[in-house]
Amino acid sequence: xxxxxxxxxxxxxRGKSAHSRSCVVFYLPKDGxxxxxxxxxxxxxxxxxxxxxxxxxxxxxxxxQDTLIDGHYVFVAKSSLHSIKYSTLQKDIxxxxxxxxxxxxxx
Length: 107
Prior knowledge:
Number of domains: 1
Order of helices and strands: HEEEHEH
Number of helices: 3
CATH class: Alpha Beta
Number of strands: 4
Distance between the termini: 28 Å
Oligomer: single chain
Strand order of the largest sheet: 1-2-4-3
CATH architecture: 2-Layer Sandwich
């Protein structure tokens, strides 16, 4: 799990990003490790909504992590994340991860 401000900054500055309707994902390739961080600014909503948004992103990470290439990932919530259907959110995340070439190719 990414926790330090320095780690987040490294992914923001050196990594690639892709946007969807519900979130932004930053990705920095790193061999041998998979780390993830989540963030939701006050623009997303009050504390309850921000925490719900981060819980949804954590659930999606657990769902997709086995299919992803090693690296550091930062999920940034947009204001619509808490209100859209979970199936739509899955499609959004899948689209973003494919766009970043962060998914493993089938062998």
